[in-house]
Specification:
mainly alpha; Arc Repressor Mutant, subunit A; Tetracycline Repressor, domain 2
Length: about 200
Amino acid sequence: MVRSDGQVLSRRADEDAREQQLLNAALDLLVASGYEAMTMDALAKHAHVSKATIYRRWSGKADLIVDALQGGAASYDGLDRGSLRADLLALGASFETEDDRAPAIFTATAHAVRTDPDLAAAVRERLAQPLREASMAVVERAIGRGEVPTAARDLTVFADLLPSLLLCRMLMPPVADSELSVAQIVDTVLLPVLLAAR
């Protein structure tokens, strides 16, 4: 029987919702037990699915966890906002999350990438590298607009500044009720570094 477009879309939406629930359950287990102790058996039980269901979609734990981490990240597409400052603010906003588990997720992942080569490779390829490319694309656009000197393209460390500062802000409590905002990082660190490139 041929399904109507509405039925196909509805089925796809249901599958997407189930997948998102499974990814969310994986992050729950990552926080609760750590990456090393997290098993597919435990995930299947926690998510109320069979292990076969998990393995039909993911080849292993590293692939699954990186998908879960990507699910909470904004896309870097469409970051051209017309100016360097606007692009940097948009890039910083891609890190913002309302997930209260974010510090614990990052801590568990940071530890695991140091001990699991498969996870380290997946994080580097699918999370870190796209961010680095997006950061350097922001710099290239700014060079093209004449906003920063061409020497800014040689500041490869620039791509690490924003995530480092934002992750530090996430993990460290603010001092004297002063919260370090994305705009402050852009205006006091990122723009001066790029503008001073020689």
